[in-house]
Write a structure and sequence with these properties.
about 300 residues, alpha+beta, 3 domains, 8 helices, about 10% strand, disordered N terminus, FAR1 domain-containing protein, FAR1_DNA_bnd_dom
């Protein structure tokens, strides 16, 4: 069940226009919506196919998402607890541990930061690993080992984001080998000249790629060529490329559900930015266009009956 859809649409304490962006300080109602969103996403990631137990086979990227959802829900819980403490101090029992600050302490809630040690405890990675090591080519050097292809792809994607290029899948053979490469590999294709939008090709015959082969129970890097034939982008520029502005299907479904429940695109974008943080690479315009296309598709389906 999507609990967010059970909440009243009039929860927002902002009496202005619905399209107005929410303030940087969450209201109590917004905090409660934030908790529901994060719990829904925790359920989406953690439940197994049988809906009977929690998954224990999370990838590094999934562990990172779980930590973000927990941190997001914790921030919102502290916001609500602080409000109730200020409104009705009797809710705070002296004999019970409180998650709100006492009167002698400053009444403010500092934002949570991603705790990489916590991520490591979830995934079993040595806690001495620093996230900046993804920018080190040694993490993709010949001989580097990964438990799954998903872990290898996650590492290569992190490296690419740090260095400033996009990636794509190359040649592969199931359970034998897999190639990942810079998206600028290959030659530019000749296109029709009468097209309305004829973007310049990004293909530059780039040779940057890695090849992994299945050896025993893990995937090992057997080829690693990380030099490029083109200029690289900054981290901010790479986020704005069309490839990285793609909205994943499960987030599209989440946004559509919120839109159908009466939320404005601006408010939906706020929730998604707060929930996914740096993983939210699409712009407000991208989200609006997606929702508009969805609305037009529904209109066409209705008119065809």
């Amino acid at each position: 069940m999507n609990w967010l859809l059970q909440s009243p649409m009039s929860w927002s304490e902002n009496n202005g226009d619905q399209g107005e962006f929410l303030s940087s300080v969450m209201s109590t109602a917004e905090a409660l919506n934030n908790i529901i969103l994060n719990v829904n996403n925790l359920i989406y990631v953690l439940k197994d196919s049988a809906n009977s137990t929690l998954r224990s086979d999370l990838t590094n990227s999934e562990n990172e998402r779980v930590a973000k959802y927990i941190n997001g829900a914790s921030q919102a819980l502290n916001r609500i607890a602080l409000d109730f403490y200020m409104i009705s101090p009797s809710f705070s029992s002296p004999s019970a541990p409180s998650i709100v600050k006492s009167e002698d302490e400053e009444k403010s809630v500092a934002p949570f930061k991603d705790d990489f040690d916590y991520l490591n405890s979830l995934s079993g990675i040595n806690s001495s690993i620093d996230i900046d090591l993804y920018a080190d080519p040694d993490c993709l050097s010949i001989g580097a080992k990964f438990e799954t292809l998903e872990d290898a792809l996650y590492t290569f994607q992190k490296y690419a984001n740090k260095k400033g290029f996009n990636i794509c899948k190359g040649n592969s053979k199931q359970n034998v080998y897999q190639e990942y490469a810079c998206s600028a590999r290959g030659k530019a294709r000749k296109r029709e000249t009468d097209r309305k939008r004829n973007r310049k090709s990004t293909k530059t015959m780039c040779k940057c790629h890695i090849i992994l082969r299945k050896k025993e129970d893990c995937w090992t890097v057997t080829t690693s060529k990380l030099e490029h034939t083109h200029s690289l982008l900054t981290e901010e520029q790479i986020k704005m490329t069309a490839k990285n502005r793609y909205i994943p299907d499960h987030i599209k479904a989440q946004a559509i559900a919120l839109y159908q429940a009466g939320e404005s695109p601006a408010k939906i974008q706020y929730f998604l930015e707060n929930e996914y943080q740096e993983l939210c690479t699409w712009s407000m315009k991208d989200l609006y266009n997606m929702l508009y296309r969805r609305r037009e598709t529904i209109k066409e389906e209705i008119s065809s009956y």
